[in-house]
Amino acid sequence: MIEAILLTIATAATPLLLAALGELVVERSGVLNLGVEGMMIMGAVAGFGAAQLSGSPWVGLLAAVCAGALFSMLFGFLTLTLATNQVATGLSLTILGLGLSGMLGESFVGLPGLKLQAWAIPGLSEIPLIGKLLFAQDPIFYISIALTVAVWWFVFFTRAGLTLRAVGDSHVSAHALGLRVIRIRYLAVLFGGACAGMAGGHLSLVYTPQWTENMTAGRGWIALALVVFASWLPWRLVAGAYLFGAVTIAQFHAQAQGVGIPSQFLSALPYLATIFVLVLISSNRRMTMRNTPASLGKPFVPER
Amino acid sequence: MRVELVRRPHPSALYGALSPFLALLITATLGAIMFAILGKAPHLALYAYFIEPLTEVWSLHELLVKAAPLILIAIGLSVCFLSNNWNIGAEGQFIIGAIFGSVLPVMFPEFRGPFVLPIMLLMGILGGMTYAAIPALLKAKLNTNEILSSLMLVYVAQLFLDWLVRGPWRNPQGFNFPESRNFHADAVLPEVISASGRAHYGFVFAIIAAVVMWYILNRTLKGFEIRVMGQSPRAGRFAGFSRAGTILTTFLIAGGLAGLAGISEVSGAIGQLRPVISPGYGFTAIIVAFLGRLNPLGIVAAGLVLALSYLGGEAAQISLGVSNKVANVFQGILLFSVLACDTLIHYRVRIAGRPSAEGQGV
């Protein structure tokens, strides 16, 4: 029983972790992309559709990643090349994504989906309690963990990561040093889009292998909140994402057990929890200010 | 080939006036391409979408019914955006306004008289303000990001409404449908010209709100304060304006107007509470605010355009057999185009053929 619950927590946490990891890199470069929800839902619809057409959930996953990345370039072109307001552009990415996915996915509604099968690693998955939890998960789970380590290593232990943080902290100085601010930010936004797309693909290929309109249900926004919660540190994202996975799964189980609380109130818990952790973290000014990229959300036009 | 921006010494007045129209033109072009891909003749599709709904009196009324909440919400949002407060939870404030306003006709249906409607409207405004006060206070006192908190509250409001109409507020005579009881005659917002169509007084409220807000923003100290706090909070502080005060004022204005829109929609257009009372007006109003260039009078025009996109979606679904989701796609494209065109106001765009030695490549 406990094992089954823990297993589902990981499934609920993985899309949050992936999308948040991508956004973390984007924000570390000084760009605030509020379009996570839109890129995620495009990933979900593209993943489902490609899996249907090809008969392979792996093709679906690839399509999800590409769709998220492609969609993020729309945001990149506007905010980076045309220097538009990042908040408004991110919002419009979400609005367009929700609309476009609804239109593209209309014929997918009600179709049975293809599921990306779990990989049980022989031997290791036999270990009692943690075996199933760590070594018998869906492939995207392993990717999300590997990616967390990779992002952490990249951001803090590589020269390119240092460059990324420099661009995010002061684009003017970075530009003066000869760093290609806009190009670096494009790459960061692209990575963020690919991650959000993969997170969406997880939803429609693993979490609930089907297509329903607005199936991201605010997860992109929760991922954005997680980045703030984690104060831009990758390993804290894991804690945050699993905490939220736990809240989501706990409310599902409470609904199934019929605990006498209306299901709507239980469904509202993850959203209320998001506000709660935001308040908690933001009231501690010292902690948030230390890691916030100083140029976050400010448009940059190179002087020539 | 790459794009270079060169900052203008002054914002261009020409492009300031032209950019919304340019954005509409781009959207129509992209729309035509989209229809062509869907296998419809573009000119017929665009006609069915944007012109046909304007050719009949009843559908003009429907246009005003849909424009009323969009304009009311967008005016409030524009005040927030001008002061650099990103309230994107208007959808939630709209819903809570509708719920607060419905307390009287749903819980006390035997209470009748000419006072019912004014009380409902005031309660609706109060409801929206209360709900908007949450992210405002969190931002002002605890520095919590208002974008995320106001958006999360949208989901909470939707679930709360869903619970109400399926639970305690379900119509006792409603055959178990998830609906509240129908509003009695005294609780219904009347039509403006009832002989010709459904347009109710919500549109009149929207026009009044636009004029009043134009006056406040352009002719009063409060309006000046809102602008200054948006453009340069540091200068605002030196002028003695309060950051917390501006956050609260702008959120309360936005929440109040969204609440008014909510109760007007429920009382004027629907006549009862249902699990879903808005096709995303709170989010579409963000587009209205930007298309109207955050100017109350521009917002009235922009509200009519976006209302047309909803109507056109329905019309195109019937006459062309395309999905009514096309409307949301149009709206998304429109916001992108507006933001892209606004770049022309502050920058000259140069297309350079070859990257210069030290330039920023794309």
Can you walk me through this structure?
Chain A: InterPro entries: ABC_transp_permease (IPR001851). Chain A: GO terms for molecular function: transmembrane transporter activity. Chain A: It is a multi-pass membrane protein. Chain A: Keywords: Cell membrane, Membrane, Transmembrane, Transmembrane helix. Chain A: Pfam families: BPD_transp_2. The complex is a heterodimer of chains A (304) and B (362). By secondary structure, chain A is mostly helical. Chain A has a single domain, classed as Orthogonal Bundle (ABC transporter involved in vitamin B12 uptake, BtuC). Helices cover 72% and strands 0% of the residues of chain A. Chain A is globular and about 60 Å long. The termini of chain A are far apart. The mean pLDDT of chain A is 90. By secondary structure, chain B is mostly helical. Helix content of chain B is 68%, strand content 3%. Chain B has a domain of 204 residues. A two-stranded antiparallel ribbon of chain B has the order 1-2. Chain B has 13 helices and two strands. The longest helix of chain B has 28 residues. Chain B is globular. At the A-B interface, α3, α4, α9, α10 and α12 of A face β1, α6, α11 and α13 of B.
- Overall mean pLDDT of chain A stands at 90
Q: Would you identify the regions of chain A where 5 or more consecutive residues have pLDDT less than 50?
A: none
Total strands of chain B: 2
- Measured on Cα atoms, how large is the radius of gyration of chain B? 22 Å
CATH topology of chain A: ABC transporter involved in vitamin B12 uptake, BtuC
**Cα gyration radius of chain A (Å):** 19 Å
CATH architecture of chain A: Orthogonal Bundle
CATH superfamily caption of chain A:
ABC transporter involved in vitamin B12 uptake, BtuC
**Unreliable segments of 5+ consecutive residues of chain B:** 356-362
Count of helical stretches of chain B: 13
How many strands in all of chain A?
Answer: 0
- Helix vs. strand class of chain A: mainly alpha
Strand content of chain A: under 5%
Which H/E pattern describes the elements of chain A?
A: HHHHHHHHHHHHHH
Query: What does the average pLDDT of chain B come to?
Result: 90
Shape of chain A: globular
Q: Helix coverage percent of residues of chain A? A: over 70%
Task: Give the C-level CATH assignment of chain A.
Answer: Mainly Alpha
Characterize the largest beta sheet of chain A: strand count, sense, and whether it forms a barrel.
Answer: none
Membrane topology (chain A): Multi-pass membrane protein
Keywords (chain A): Cell membrane, Membrane, Transmembrane, Transmembrane helix
Transmembrane segments (chain A): 32-51, 58-80, 86-105, 140-164, 184-208, 220-244, 264-281
Main location (chain A): membrane
